[in-house]
Write the structure tokens for this entry.
Amino acid sequence: QSQLVESGGGLVQPGGSLRLSCVTSGFDLSTSAVGWFRQAPGKERESLACIASFGGTIEYVDSVKGRFSISRDNAKNTVYLQINSLKPEDTGVYYCAARRSYCGDDYDYWGQGTQVTVSS
């Protein structure tokens, strides 16, 4: 059974940093692309970043470039999302999802999400 489990969320002050983790199991992470998504209160889920399998091509939505960094450690079956200079508008539930090979619009497996709240 394919699973993704996010962790690392929490309450953080504006300007702070977090590193989210997405631990995968039940499928070959090395041949999979993984994306990070966010659903803010009252808003639709949005794509934030994706890291592909072969070659590790990385994509970011424009709004997070320079503050978010996605990386992967296939040996640990884990994909990370480093978030710096957190803003209140970064508040939301963060999800990771996986699909074969390359980044795209449709993902096969999803995690349950981790809550990030940015507030003073």
